[in-house]
Write a structure and sequence with these properties.
325 residues, alpha+beta, five-stranded antiparallel sheet, four-stranded antiparallel sheet, 8 helices, 29% strand, rod-shaped
Length: 325
Amino acid sequence: MSFFSKQFIDVIHWTEPGDGVLAWRFPMEDMEIQNGGQLTVRDSQMAVFVNEGRIADVFGPGLYTLSTRTLPILTYLMNWDKAFKSPFKSDVYFFSTRLQMNQKWGTATPITVRDREFGAVRLRAYGIYSWRIADAKVFHEKVSGTRQVYLVSELEGQLRNTIVGAMTNAFAASTIPFLDLAANQAQLGQNLLAALRPVFADLGLALETFVVENVSLPEELQKLLDQRIGMNMIGDMGRYTQFQVAQSMPIAAANEGGGAAGIVGLGAGLIMAQQMINATRPAAPESAPAAAPAPAGGAGTKFCMNCGKSIPKPAKFCPECGGAQ
């Protein structure tokens, strides 16, 4: 009577309730599959029959009438020498083979690598990738197992850490300087895609795309790089200082209460800046000092407003730099 009290399954199918489900076990408790029952596997799905803990048959998308011809491996395991007539017990697992898109990855802490130009630097990187289940049998054996439901979120940590490990090796083996990485991010993504595909395949997955969105330095190192870039843009410090003073002179002259005193202050500042610049330059070879021309009529001297050199007061142009006085 227990046999007749059981329920028989005529149709086996799965409609995904939403995103994020990778594997789902069809409810088989106290139920057996009817001979000639229908198995529906929709597009972007795979179905796996498991008998007594062993994977029997794997089905791709399609409509199947369950018989010894559609279940050849299960038929062999159950020792059916002819078409079975009675219901049978088996576990059926469905797997979603849809593309899992917009999966994010990133370095939780900076990766220290040796750069050809800067020496040892720490890099951060992040991006997106997409993958899908390619081999349901391998995925069932190594990942999802006999779970009733297996979700994408349960696999994210493993995949993300695997990517960061591969990223460290890729940076270490790369000969591209950091300043050239921005122009080579697409190639870096392709290199990582090729390196990670075998790792994903070992879990029954197929890595479809891998994108490196950004490679950057930590904030404190980025500030130092910005300072270096600024120094390179300035170029000749002497000319830059003269330009800054020349730009400030009209402003100082226009300030209330400034007038000549402000301009004299700027001239003194220029002299100090010029002395600092000269102190950083290599010393010129010693030569006999040239006799300074005697100031005309004992009129005294003044400082050039452009270069800060001492010149005769009546001079209209500086004999050193040619600047108008």
